[in-house]
Amino acid sequence: MEIKIPSNITRMRIKHLPFLTRLAELGEKEYSIREIREMNASFLQVPFEEFPPYRPKDDIKIFNTICKAVNTKSKADTEQFVAHDGKVYNEPPKELNYNGLTYTFRNDFTKLPTSWFMDIDIAFEMHGEAFEGKPELMAGFCYVEKGLSYGQKDDSGLVVNSVVERSKVFKEYMPLNEFLDLQGFFLWRWNVLHPLLTEVRAKRKKAQRERKLNGNGKNQLTH
Fold first, then answer.
1. What's the total number of domains in the chain?
2. What is the model's pLDDT at position 107?
3. Rounded to the nearest 10 degrees, how much is the dihedral formed by the CA atoms of 216, 217, 220, 223?
4. Would you say the pTM of this structure is higher than 0.70?
5. Which domain holds residue 52?
6. Same-domain status, 111 and 35
7. DSSP labels for 34-61?
């Protein structure tokens, strides 16, 4: 098996996030060889059962190479802030360009449409409030195609910029360091978002109960 490890965190993508998540879960301790192999497999996107049986010293070498790359990034040239977890993050870019499209950062939750709150509440219910099951959705909610509004529809009423499809773009192209900064921003602004969700959540739950009475109570993102 050929092993390719990006040279620094800016070359990593959201798919590498499970490695950092597991590292944080285990905390600072002496890791067992099995734990190291599990983290290596998650980083390299290989099922643990299919991960090659390297010698322990080789497993450790791979792990150390990944950790070194994770901790290597360029000096911040943007504004920074301290989130509720006490860590310092860079302000997320106001615009991002992927695949010929420009995406603008929506950093003011108070100016977003009700449909955004409805959808993000459903996403929380489906994947957790930290988007554990689908982290790229966080980027899909925080950025929108330039010149378009969230969930914009065409003349026939069809959504032209689905949050799910947009999230797939971010999963493939967004550098991991930028995603981590976005996570920090989301955590930092949670005190603003949470109260705004309360009323919308009550309305959505009421509508969901009514749909169940009509035989259709399945959750799905609508925009």
1. 2
2. 87
3. 70
4. yes
5. 9-70
6. no
7. HHHHHHHHHHTT--GGGS----HHHHHH
